[in-house]
Design brief:
The protein has 408 residues and is of the alpha+beta class. It has 7 helices and 20 strands. α2 runs antiparallel to α3.
Length: 408
Amino acid sequence: METRPDGRVGDEVVHAVNGLTARWATTTHHGTAFSAAGVWPLLAFLADGAAGPARAELAGALGVPAERAAGAARELLARLAAVPGLEAALGLWTHHGLPLREEWRAGLPAGTQGVFGDDLVTAQERLDRWAAERTGGLVERMPVTLTREARMVLAGALTLRTDWRQPFTELPLRPAAGPWQGRILRGLHRRSVRPDRVGVAGTPDGFVTVLTVPGGGGIDVHLVLGEERMTSGQVLTAGVGVVGRGLPLTGGGGLPHGHVGPGVHVEQQPAAGPEPRTLDMTTVSYEVRADHDLLALPGLFGLTTASDPRTGHFPGVSPHPLAVGEARQSAVARFGALGFRAAAVTAVMPAPAGGAPSYTHETTVVRVAFDRPFAFLTTDRESRLILLAGWVTDPSPHPTPGFGPPSR
């Protein structure tokens, strides 16, 4: 697997990462944000050092052969770091008593390795500081907590910052129907001469409306609204299909008059003279925070055997037997009048095989917004690689009392 001549990651890696996004999306039920692009490189480096069933399961979750996984991960990280407004980082910390295989360590990007000792408080502070610094404070701490059994932490950080080409105007919004009826929300509105920024697609589960909000640096945010009967997983899966061009989309310029899709109305309005078809966009600002225990879905991430502590699974990483004791991701996404900010920190913490894994449970805080629950997917515009995705269920209130017009 090689990078294309123009320096971009090939379609095979994009397809593999987006495939993991689609499978993860089917498990979502509540307001959430998640990044398969943040998990994928870590699983790839683990697959490179794994053996037996654990190696096969990790390769299956990745969608690429294990012997090519490390190279694909390096290419993906390099591409992510090259996108303006997107920062990607990898960190490896090992206990001072754990020897690493030189072949495996050499496969990681340069400058990623650190060492920790028995002073776990100081070591945890260092890991938390790394997470905060790599995400500009959006994620304040590492999603895993060091224990006496921990021998290694492999972590990745992904941070997105993009400003809209055309800012929204912030106005109070009161939905006239739906689960947010009667609430005063922080509404966002703008008008565009690009009606094809919105489109409608049909799926076996129902119709979805997709609005593309272009940001700077080649990053797009796609808002996806499905029929009310559709689940979050169905809407997100449809969004992945549209982004990957697997589902045909009828653009706003070709839609007939009337109610033509979820949340979409095409109508005639008086004008002073001949004018092109325009797009009138109304949405709501939101913030979503979520914490994910990857070991709660071990089959999805290829970690079923790898997390079995009865034996070691990573002889290519270290001569000491290791099993995955903890694997988590913390993610945050903010959509506002001026732009989009998001970050995800993912960490995998192997422990000695034969010991029981240790888990840390954290409260998930969800604050999200729109006319009714909807999905979002953030992509690299050229490759259409999905960087972060999510499902919005709870709108933000408008900061000051007031009455805005009901949404239609």
